[in-house]
Request: fold
Amino acid sequence: PSVKEPTLVDWLKYKGISLSTISGEERHGIVHRLDKGTTGLLVVAKTNEAHAKLAAQLEDKSMGRYYLAIVDLPLKDDTVVEKPIYRDPKNRLKMGIVENGKNAKTAFKKLALTKEESPKRYELIAAKLFTGRTHQIRVHLESIGRHILGDNLYGFKSKSDNINRIFLHAYCLYLKDPISDEELQFISPLPDEFKTLLQKEFDKDFVDEKIDHTYITNSFGDIDNWMYT
Reply:
């Protein structure tokens, strides 16, 4: 029989932290999810009242996240991908673009290319979700011929042994305090592997400017003028 891996919920319960119960036994407290291998910010509710209010924010878009990713080929332009997603009929481990699938919309912003002297042609991008489908960022990037470094499930191919994780990070989260209604914003520092690759292949000063959370937030303000695919 398979062995169940410890989860965030298991760890929180072990620490004695109270959690909401309205998402089912295995998802106590979990307001939204992150794909396995994706790092960064996750919202957990301690009470059912807070959970309900936070879930409502997800629904009305007053809560949201900005992701950072490194992809294997530069985007042609800032772009919005609006394509339906459903379970891939040929591979049950994957999601795919399926005609009658669930509506899904993601905006992608170009941030920084690798240094001119680098043999790599990677690009650091930011992504904003307008819907919350499983593997959404990964599926939408694959649909336009781009792949997140380390994401072998969705088409990334590399002979480098240094790519041993998915370079996708939930970087910035905004929401309203479910009690006070105060607008809040949180930033999750980049993982060490992410920082190491950026320092090696990219111009650090330029990257630091582009990943400023205010810059990222403001840069998605004109998406109505972006290319749609």
